[in-house]
Amino acid sequence: MLIFNCTEAASNFFSRMSKGKKITPVEKPPSPVIEDDEVVVEFAEQWLVHAITVQRKHVLFVIHVQTRYCMIFADAKKADIEGFVQRFSERWINGLMRHAGQHDLLRWVDDEPMMERFRESCREYVFYKRGHRGAQKHINEISWIFEDCAAEWGTLPTDEYAAGRFDGNRNNTPRSSKGHKDYYYPDEEMIIHWLRVYGGVDDSAAEAARERRMEVRREIWALERQLAQEAQ
């Protein structure tokens, strides 16, 4: 199940007025603290959603509470729940598959069973009005960077590919949070999470994928250093 925990701003974004009454899909959560939720479904994915206005358009920031993997949705349509969930799912899947392809991880991906597990686990979704202090801190940082970039570009990302590039840059930024001893990369944590939950790989295979990802990262860094030296 997809669980979208909405800030006050996001709750207002997903709500609409009809004949003087507020119509909202955002419900009261089972507990005020995300980590205190009783586990009633397998593979519950907890996300925090925040909304701001940039260049007079709505922008949503969505961050995975566990891994801090983030996605931004520019020019979002107010109160369009189904449109948001579809756009969210497509961006999530496409971003991960692109990351897997770029880091030689497709050997651990079996497309059809993986997508079947995803559809089965995430076909249901719920919106709660609830925050998360740690994830909100990261969203605030990401939103500040996004606003600066949008001002520099003079526009919002023009398509999903451009938005996905911004996502990729943010998810390749080291982060720290409660429960992690050291800094970590959200894209690495999310791809390993995805392989375990939806890819059906065991712990040893997941660690092999993690090691291969780091090998490719080191190869990329070495190539970048070489090109920089040659350019001098």
For the record, the count of structural domains works out to 1
What's the main sheet like?
6 strands, mixed
User: What general form does the structure show?
Assistant: globular
Topology order in helix (H) and strand (E) letters: EHEEEEEEHHEHHHH
Task: Give the arrangement of secondary structure elements.
Elements: E1 2-6, H1 8-13, E2 16-18, E3 21-23, E4 26-27, E5 45-54, E6 57-64, E7 70-74, H2 81-102, H3 111-122, E8 125-129, H4 133-153, H5 160-171, H6 186-197, H7 203-231
Parallel strand pairs: 1-5, 1-8, 4-8
Antiparallel strand pairs: 2-3, 5-6, 6-7
Structure keywords:
232 residues; alpha/beta; single chain
Explain what the structure shows:
With 232 residues, this protein is of the alpha/beta class. It has one domain (2-231). The protein is 49% helix and 18% strand. A 6-stranded mixed beta sheet has the order 4-8-1-5-6-7, with helices on both faces. A hairpin with a 2-residue loop joins strand 5 (45-54) and strand 6 (57-64). The mean pLDDT is 93.
In a few lines, what is going on in this structure?
By secondary structure, the chain is of the alpha/beta class.
